[in-house]
């Protein structure tokens, strides 16, 4: 028969036994009104009531008026960050549960919030399910804590309640005698450490402590004898017991309170201890720390950790008067994989490359991913540049076998730039930048190679960057200009065409040749804007000459291959002609053989569109590429332009079979023919003999501004009056 005193204690606490039916009041603190209105919808449950506010000050006012079970707190608010409210709650001994919702990606923000008492930390962007779990867990935990508080109050009046709390506690509760041996253990020891209580009774507490923490705990256990009444709190690892003998450890937060006698001397007779399992929290902190310093895709060190290691290696090299190397590695053609197979395959490729690169490095080297397809390598303790060269060759060799992707094999190559300390820089930033400069030069020289940094490279790189920056504002500063070179009929001694040639009048460099800046414009994405300016200016000039009573011949302008990637290129050209009231026949578009051969994005259809609109289309530098008659049938062009390289070596009739072939092609396809680069009368006579009458070059005129071109149009005989 069980007496009432022996019956187990089963507390009934409102809101604790069943969190699904209890009433919970939740305060949402966020400066985004739309987000505040969203939370009650996504977190709605029976019995949940929501209040909202947008600042720390408003939140404190609400808290002074009522108690809340949970606070959903944004980390950054207009008047302070969320830590200020955590401080207020702690100072005022409030027991509201707090879930921090933050867009901060630093480990310090998360750890700071948890240490100040936040129950959970949810990082933006988050899944709704993740937020719901955090809220459910915090409310459930709050209910449990409420239960514990109420039971603690009843402990004074009931030994049965005391026994229930101790025996049912989720924490390990124990007492030690004056010798540091267990005199009591609650049942939690079995679930937490795997030991039976009877097996540990009268055994020293230190038998459970891992060897690495013994020195600390010895000092703390001896402290109460000299400082009676002083409690302590420490994190340490306790040994777990397994039947097979392979025990691991559990990290606990241990609070120790000395037990004193009631006599006048107040002697320490033992220790009351509570050990809370914080293994999950420690693992979460480790994960947050890892994510802060490592790339999530490859698990390699990220930019921050690489910089720290490089700075440490530089300091060590300076003390030892040693050397080190930094490599900057960029994956060639990586965009091709992403665009062709998708970003998932691109990620697989990066992981495979990271694995192969890691296998080539020495112990102590550091491989990091900066982001995208860029990697860096730190090579400490190298004796000579040849050491870095050996590793660079290994890197190139290790990527020779194809990488297997789900869509098929892919042969990856990389471009590697190398900078040496102290020769190429004394800081982490200088070494990384100079290795990047060297890598960029490899890219421009054909890729799949390595190169050491050269100070001359840096100078050229700086000049290139300066040129890019100046070019971006050249149109706005009205520095671009069109010059015009006539195309003349030698037999008729008349002007039959004009070619508009772009010039850049740089404020400090003077005239910058197109061969220098057009390629830069294509690489940085400015060529479309410049081509639009050329088209607009050319049409405007034709219209202006017509208003001045001068009827210009057909004007030709050059377009880039990038312009023909535009789906609306034909409409853009015809719209410009309409704006300036210029007839389509007055304009000729010059394209290169490379555009014709690649036929990218339906170039042939766009050429047919231009011809249908009434414009002429010329193939510039004809004969320098891989010309084929089939392409002349596919592309309805109107003019062939003989490249100046064929004209330059012309000495007499029939001395250049290529020109003879080109003139034959032009006659066969009934195309106009223009020879470029004619500089002397012998070349002109030879071209006429070979069947080419229309010429362009210094023999007649150098490219000149619009005013000079207008003078030629009014008096064409000026071009034939004297050699140029």
TrEMBL record:
Modified residues (4-aspartylphosphate): 74
Entry annotated with the keyword Amino-acid biosynthesis: no
Domain EAL: start-end pairs: 464-717
Protein name: EAL domain-containing protein
Domain PAC, first and last residues per copy: 232-290
Keywords: Phosphoprotein
Ranges for domain GGDEF: 322-455
NCBIfam families, alphabetized: GGDEF, sensory_box
All copies of domain PAS, residue ranges: 158-217
Stretches assigned to the Response regulatory domain: 25-139
Pfam family membership, one: Response_reg
Organism, scientific name: Thauera mechernichensis
CDD domains from the UniProt entry: EAL, GGDEF, PAS, REC
């Amino acid at each position: 028969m069980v007496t009432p005193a022996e019956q187990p204690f089963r507390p009934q606490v409102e809101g604790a036994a069943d969190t699904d039916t209890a009433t919970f009041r939740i305060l949402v603190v966020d400066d985004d009104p739309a987000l505040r209105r969203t939370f009650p919808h996504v977190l709605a449950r029976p019995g949940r009531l929501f209040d909202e506010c947008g600042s720390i000050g408003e939140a404190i006012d609400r808290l002074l008026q009522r108690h809340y079970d949970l606070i959903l707190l944004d980390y950054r608010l207009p008047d302070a960050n969320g830590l200020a409210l955590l401080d207020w709650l702690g100072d005022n001994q409030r027991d509201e549960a707090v879930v921090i919702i933050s867009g901060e990606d630093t480990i310090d923000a998360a750890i700071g919030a948890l240490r100040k008492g936040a129950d959970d930390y949810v990082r933006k962007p988050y899944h709704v399910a993740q937020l719901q779990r955090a809220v459910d867990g915090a409310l459930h935990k709050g209910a449990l804590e409420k239960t514990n508080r109420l039971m603690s109050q009843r402990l004074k009046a009931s030994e049965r309640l005391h026994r229930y709390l101790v025996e049912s506690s989720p924490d390990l509760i124990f007492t030690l005698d004056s010798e540091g041996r267990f005199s009591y253990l609650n049942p939690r020891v079995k679930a937490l450490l795997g030991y039976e209580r009877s097996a540990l009774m009268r055994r020293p507490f230190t038998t459970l402590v891992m060897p690495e923490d013994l020195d600390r705990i010895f000092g703390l256990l001896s402290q109460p004898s000299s400082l009676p009444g002083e409690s302590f709190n420490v994190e340490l690892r306790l040994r777990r017991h397994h039947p097979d003998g392979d025990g691991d450890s559990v990290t606990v937060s241990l609070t120790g309170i000395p037990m004193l006698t009631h006599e006048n001397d107040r002697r320490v007779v033992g220790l009351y201890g509570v050990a809370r399992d914080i293994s999950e929290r420690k693992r979460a902190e480790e994960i947050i720390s890892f994510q802060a310093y490592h790339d999530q895709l490859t698990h390699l060190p990220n930019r921050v950790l690489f910089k720290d290691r490089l700075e440490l290696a530089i300091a060590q090299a300076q003390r030892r008067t040693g050397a080190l190397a930094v490599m900057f590695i960029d994956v060639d053609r990586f965009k091709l994989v992403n665009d062709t197979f998708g970003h998932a395959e691109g990620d697989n490729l990066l992981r495979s490359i990271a694995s192969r690169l890691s296998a080539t490095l020495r112990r102590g080297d550091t491989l990091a991913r900066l982001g995208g397809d860029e990697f860096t390598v730190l090579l400490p303790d190298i004796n000579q540049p040849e050491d870095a060269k050996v590793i660079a060759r290994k890197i190139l060799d290790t990527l020779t076998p194809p990488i297997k992707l789900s869509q098929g094999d892919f042969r990856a190559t990389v471009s590697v730039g190398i900078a040496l300390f102290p020769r190429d820089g004394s800081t982490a930033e200088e070494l990384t930048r100079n290795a990047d400069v060297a890598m960029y030069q490899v890219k421009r020289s054909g890729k799949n190679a390595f190169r050491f940094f050269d100070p001359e490279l840096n100078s050229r790189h700086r000049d290139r960057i300066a040129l890019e920056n100046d070019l971006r504002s050249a149109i706005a500063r009205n520095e671009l200009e069109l010059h015009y070179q006539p195309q003349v009929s030698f037999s008729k001694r008349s002007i039959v065409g004009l070619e508009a040639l772009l010039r850049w009048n740089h404020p400090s460099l003077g005239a910058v040749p197109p061969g220098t800046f057009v390629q830069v414009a294509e690489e940085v994405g400015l060529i479309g804007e410049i081509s639009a300016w050329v088209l607009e200016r050319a049409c405007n000039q034709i219209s202006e000459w017509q208003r001045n009573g001068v009827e210009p011949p057909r004007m030709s302008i050059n377009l880039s291959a990038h312009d023909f990637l535009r789906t609306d290129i034909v409409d853009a050209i015809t719209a410009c002609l309409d704006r300036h009231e210029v007839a389509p026949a007055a304009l000729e578009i010059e394209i290169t053989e490379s555009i014709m051969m690649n036929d990218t994005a339906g170039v042939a259809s766009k050429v047919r569109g231009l011809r249908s609109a009434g414009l002429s289309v010329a193939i510039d530098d004809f004969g320098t590429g891989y010309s084929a008659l089939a392409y002349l049938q596919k592309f309805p062009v109107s003019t062939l332009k003989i490249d100046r390289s064929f004209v330059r070596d012309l000495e007499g009739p029939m001395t250049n079979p290529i020109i003879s072939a080109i003139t034959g092609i032009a006659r066969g396809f009934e195309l106009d023919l223009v020879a470029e680069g004619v500089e002397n009368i012998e070349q002109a006579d030879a071209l006429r003999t070979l069947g080419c009458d229309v010429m362009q070059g210094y023999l007649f005129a150098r490219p000149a501004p619009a005013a000079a071109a207008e003078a030629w149009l009014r008096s064409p005989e000026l071009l034939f009056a004297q050699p140029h």
